[in-house]
Design goal:
Blueprint lengths: L1 H60 L2 H12 L4 E7 L5 E4 H11 L21 H9 L3 E7 L2 E11 L14 E10 L1 H54 L13 H68 L5 H28 L7 E3 L1 H18 L2 E7 L6 E3 L1 H17 L5 E10 L2 E8 L29 H11 L3 E6 L5 E8 L2
Parallel strand pairs: 7-9
Antiparallel strand pairs: 1-2, 1-5, 3-4, 4-5, 6-8, 9-10, 10-12, 11-12
Helix pairs in contact: 1-5, 2-3, 5-6, 6-7, 8-9, 9-10
Length: 506
């Protein structure tokens, strides 16, 4: 993914950079070529102006020495490739590059006359350029291709004047056309050089810039994105969002990485909390299954035990009036044990056949207060202080008040029994995150780690032969579960115990 993203970015930006450099270098090349052409044509025009004035001077003066010197000077101009005086029919009047040796003899009257010995047609008499010059009485410039390269050609009309009448009696308005061909080979060379430099410059510059952009892109963009991608892959493989990307920057990429790390940290926290909640809920489901199984077993046992137990109780009552005084103490002990068995059977019956809850919107603080009033005398006899910390007002909850009182009564009595030498029971109500919580905290001997996972099991008790059926917490657990709530315990041996009942607020 990283390579594809990097290739796309480099491809798009590289194309933009390359096109930009090509356009820039092309514009610069066109400017240089135009400047070179302008400079070359300017020089050629200067040569043309000089030749035109020189010819006119020679024509008017008829000075052979001047003509001889002038022809020698023309031979020194390398740029000059052709000099012709052409009549209206396109025939040569005289030609500089081949017949300059005869110019000295033709100065004067014969200068603009056609050479009779070697007549040469320079231009077609119907040539549109020649016709245009004669018709419009203006000069013309154009570029031809010669064997040695490009030629800048000028067609300049030679006008008749007053001083020309002595030689040209007919007085034509245009005596002839001066055709001057100068080489602009340096323009061709310059164009080739400019094109070569343009292509090379565009390639080198584009390569350098694209390479630099690729390095910066990899450091600033693709590397942190790749780290994020690898981290996500590690999270998927490990199934634990506990990874972070090590990258710090004040730009948008740095902000993205920072937010990604915050997200993974929160996900990890939620994942850990979820694991704890799943473990707790699994524990509750296992506990509920145990209670259900124990309830089914208890239902059968109650019927099997209650009938013979009733017979035993009746027999004991009959024996109390017939036995000697020496046996009455034994009979009384047997009667107490039978009553204990009846109490256990009643607990089993409530456990096995709980009545369905009748829900209504209640104030849980009122249920807590009624429970405290029922247990206060028992607490005072055990030197236990009951401290109420009830938040007012509390949202109402949907619950069965009698069943909730049974739960609170059981938790309060368990706390009092856990403090045989006296202590304090704090009952606190509060509201957090949409839930109403009731906490029972005692200062008793606590519950050891070996027993903490068994206290909600049916028939489990730490009171031994001192009393208790071990069903109170199991029944409480079932009632809270039927109310879609939770009951939790937090305790360490020797440091007291806290039971928390958590119910959804209306």
């Amino acid at each position: 993914m990283n390579n594809k993203l990097e290739s796309k970015i480099i491809g798009i930006t590289g194309l933009v950079v390359a096109v930009s450099f090509i356009i820039a270098f092309t514009i610069n090349a066109i400017t240089d070529i135009n400047s070179l052409k302008e400079e070359s044509t300017t020089k050629s025009r200067l040569i043309g102006d000089t030749i035109a004035r020189s010819i006119r001077t020679i024509m008017l003066t008829g000075n052979g020495n001047i003509a001889s010197q002038w022809t020698d000077d023309l031979r020194m101009i390398n740029r000059l490739k052709g000099l012709y005086v052409i009549e209206s029919d396109g025939m040569l009047a005289f030609r500089s590059t081949r017949t300059l040796d005869t110019v000295n003899q033709q100065i004067g009257k014969t200068l603009f006359h056609r050479e009779k010995r070697t007549p040469i047609r320079i231009m077609d008499e119907n040539d549109p350029r020649l016709r245009w010059v004669y018709k419009n009485k203006k000069g013309m410039e154009y570029i031809d291709q010669g064997p040695e390269g490009s030629l800048f050609t000028q067609l300049r009309p030679i006008f008749s004047g007053v001083k020309c009448a002595k030689c040209h009696t007919k007085k034509p308005e245009i005596l002839g056309v001066l055709k001057i061909a100068t080489s602009i080979e340096e323009v061709d060379v310059g164009i080739k050089k400019t094109i070569t430099m343009t292509i090379a410059g565009a390639i080198i510059s584009s390569t350098f810039v694209i390479g630099l952009m690729w390095i910066l892109l990899r450091i600033v963009v693709t590397k942190p994105i790749a780290q994020v991608a690898y981290t996500i892959k590690d999270i998927i493989i490990s199934e634990r969002p506990d990874k972070a990307v090590e990258y710090e920057s004040a730009d948008e990429i740095g902000g993205m990485v920072e937010n990604f790390n915050i997200m993974t940290a929160r996900l990890n926290e939620m994942y850990t909390t979820l694991e704890e909640k799943v473990a707790e809920r699994t524990k509750q489901l296992v506990q509920a299954e145990r209670i259900a199984s124990a309830g089914q077993l208890a239902t059968g046992l109650i019927h099997e035990i209650r009938n013979p137990l009733s017979g035993v109780k009746l027999s004991i009552q009959l024996l109390e009036n017939e036995v000697d005084q020496s046996l009455k103490d034994d009979i009384l002990q047997i009667s107490r044990e039978v009553q204990r068995m009846e109490s256990l059977l009643n607990d089993l019956l409530r456990f096995a056949r709980p009545h369905p809850p009748i829900f209504s919107a209640i104030d849980i603080n009122e249920v807590v207060s009624r429970t405290v009033s029922l247990t206060r005398r028992r607490a005072q006899s055990s030197s236990v202080e009951i401290l109420e910390k009830l938040r007012e007002p509390l949202p109402r909850i949907m619950a069965d008040p009698s069943l909730m009182q049974q739960v609170f009564l059981n938790l309060s009595l368990n706390a009092i029994n856990a403090m045989p030498d006296g202590g304090r029971l704090t009952i606190e109500s509060l509201y957090e995150n949409g839930f109403v919580e009731i906490r029972f905290t005692d200062t008793g001997h606590g519950i050891s780690e070996d027993y903490i996972g068994k206290i909600f099991d049916p028939f489990f008790t730490t009171r031994g032969s001192s009393g208790g059926s071990g069903l109170g917490l199991s029944i409480s657990f079932r009632i809270i579960d039927e109310h879609k709530g939770q009951i939790e315990v937090d305790s360490k041996g020797g440091s007291g115990t806290t039971f928390t009942v958590r119910l959804k607020a209306v």
